[in-house]
Design brief:
By secondary structure, the protein is α/β, with parallel strands linked by helices. The chain has 18 helices and 19 strands. The structure holds 1,6-di-O-phosphono-alpha-D-glucopyranose.
């Protein structure tokens, strides 16, 4: 049993954050997400308690990120970060969901029950361990109030915490990993924002040795936290005149809260397949868009005929994997390392074919959500994972890091390749997908290959595709299997989708319930644009019919 004084403090703290009538919460694709004023404060209080339990359980610092990433400005959300800077272990999502759905007056007892369920092992009671939590938030206006609710829980239990203020999601993940690996062989860096910039800038300089980036890159920061943070990083990077990079930051207004993700940002560009209206880029100029918390990025450009071309997460993955595979070959260590790519069902069919047939690398397909891709990528020595929407990174296994660090070069070419690989280990944020780090990585690879965006796009031609957001009465009835590529419920829906797909050349489509929005997503691709749009429309009708609730 927990001390009565602690239970009383929890009761007092939780009373200020009741659950609104009828509200149900779920730890989804990326934690809890909803309208910020629809009872998210209650969730914040409970997430604070889960972080405490998790910290005690793992005897490590746990991170909490307050953000709703690509969602509209009035939404907010919260996700937990495990000790190595990765997403909360999935088996704990259930505890988080359960506590979030507990009415305030029952929280003390529910917390006590969770202590008994998660912290008591046969040898020792972990409950007496000290807990440590770090948290940060994006630029949303609701952030400070939500922090108050979170602190109320941490203060009620009386644990140590650090408020890191406003950070990008990947910066918080980086800091958590740095804190927990400090002084070990896995040391990740200095656990500060400055440490993050310095590590990235140093790696960038090594990788850019003898290379030139042609022309400026325009970065649309979605009017989110990525804007000011990127500006800070720029002050650590060499300018174009110094052999570095010319980054033009646009859509970086964080003072107008409603501007966040509005007609800009990675999700807008990917979904609408068009540039943000105010970009002012010339034909051939490289552009990219971050999302609201700077953990995803997509590239694009207009060609000489002013036709828009998207270079999405699939492209960044193939670009990066091809580069890393080349470097391991030049370094003479390719036979010792298994390189692979992880995608989701949203990956363009042409990209999968390119990876398997041209790059000759294996592909693993997982369900949507960084947590799924991350784990699959960790099974390769060099695992490149990207969602088509721009979330992704590269993971180097301990074995790969050892081989790359310890190999002795036998020629200047091998030395250069090994130095480059070592710098990649530092440049790429292995804790989690990081838009800023991914963007620098893409810029470096393009410079190494002397590629224009046209060269990049011509590696393979995307199958025309369409993504549709369908609102239904209850999205939870849509259940999937086979990495979300097939519906198992409602009965009959998949058969109809299969029939439709078979009517089109290269027709492929699937539907799945979103984990971050109250909607079902439909993806369709086919040989031609008209066909892909027709297929998307027909599958949308199927989903509407089965989801109408009648
Ligand atoms: C989050 C997740 C991503 C996922 C996206 C859309 O992104 O982190 O892995 O692809 O949501 O997910 P869903 O289709 O389930 O809504 P973000 O950028 O919002 O954190």
């Amino acid at each position: 049993h927990l001390d009565q004084a602690l239970l009383n403090k929890l009761a007092d703290g939780a009373a200020a954050y009741p659950i609104p009538e009828g509200r149900k919460y779920e730890y989804g694709t990326a934690g809890f997400r909803m309208k910020a004023d629809a009872g998210l404060d209650h969730v914040m209080f409970t997430v604070g308690l889960i972080a405490i339990l998790r910290s005690k359980k793992r005897n490590a610092t746990i991170g909490i990120m307050i953000t709703a990433s690509h969602n509209p400005a009035e939404d907010n959300g919260v996700k937990l970060v495990d000790p190595m800077g990765d997403m909360l272990e999935q088996s704990w999502e259930g505890f988080a969901t359960r506590l979030a759905n507990t009415p305030s007056d029952k929280i003390p007892k529910a917390y006590e029950a969770l202590v008994n369920e998660t912290l008591v092992d046969e040898i020792r009671q972990l409950q007496d361990r000290p807990a440590k939590v770090v948290f940060a938030r994006d630029t949303r206006a609701s952030g400070p109030y939500l922090v108050t609710a979170l602190k109320a829980a941490l203060d009620a239990v009386g644990v140590a915490y650090e408020d890191k203020g406003i950070l990008t999601t990947p910066q918080l993940h980086y800091i958590v990993r740095c804190i927990n690996t400090e002084g070990t062989v896995y040391a990740f860096g200095e656990p500060t924002e400055k440490g993050y910039y310095t590590k990235m800038a140093n790696a960038f300089k090594t990788l850019m040795y003898g290379r030139t980036i042609h022309g400026a890159i325009t970065v649309d920061a979605a009017n989110g936290v990525g804007g000011p943070k990127l500006r800070q990083l720029i002050s650590y990077l060499p300018t174009a005149a110094e052999g570095g990079i010319d980054i033009k930051v646009v859509n970086d207004d964080v003072l107008k809260p409603e501007a966040l993700n509005f007609e800009c940002g990675a999700d807008y560009v990917k979904t609408k397949q068009r540039s943000p209206p105010n970009l002012n880029a010339k034909p051939g100029d490289r552009c990219c868009s971050l999302d609201g918390d700077a953990d995803r990025v997509v590239y694009y450009y207009n060609d000489e005929q002013n036709v828009f071309h998207l270079l999405d997460g699939d492209r960044i993955a193939t670009l990066g994997a091809a580069f890393l595979a080349d470097m391991t070959r030049v370094a003479g260590i390719d036979s010792k390392l298994k390189i692979g790519i992880v995608q989701t069902a949203y990956a363009n069919g042409a990209s999968t074919e390119y990876v398997e047939k041209v790059l000759k690398l294996p592909v693993t397909v997982t369900a949507t959500g960084v947590k799924h891709l991350h784990h699959a990528a960790a099974r390769y020595d060099i695992g490149v994972y990207f969602e088509a929407n721009g979330h992704g990174t590269v993971l180097f296994s301990d074995n790969a890091i050892k081989i790359i660090r310890e190999s002795e070069p036998k020629s200047p070419g091998q030395k250069h390749a090994l130095d480059s690989l070592r710098a990649c280990i530092d440049l790429i944020n292995q804790a989690v997908g990081d838009a800023i780090s991914d963007m620098l990585f893409a810029e470096i690879v393009l410079a190494h290959k002397s590629w224009t965006p046209d060269n990049w796009r011509n590696t393979y031609i995307d199958l025309p595709n369409r993504l549709v957001r369908v609102e239904v009465a209850d999205r939870s009835i849509f259940k999937t299997t086979d990495a979300e590529r097939r519906l198992t419920s409602p009965k009959g829906a998949q058969e109809e989708i299969d029939k439709l797909c078979s009517m089109y050349q290269k027709g492929r489509a699937f539907a799945r319930a979103s984990g971050t929005e109250d909607a079902v997503r439909v993806y369709a691709e086919a040989h031609s644009k008209i066909e892909s749009e027709k297929l998307a429309g027909q599958v949308t009708e199927v989903i509407r019919k089965y989801g109408s609730g009648t």
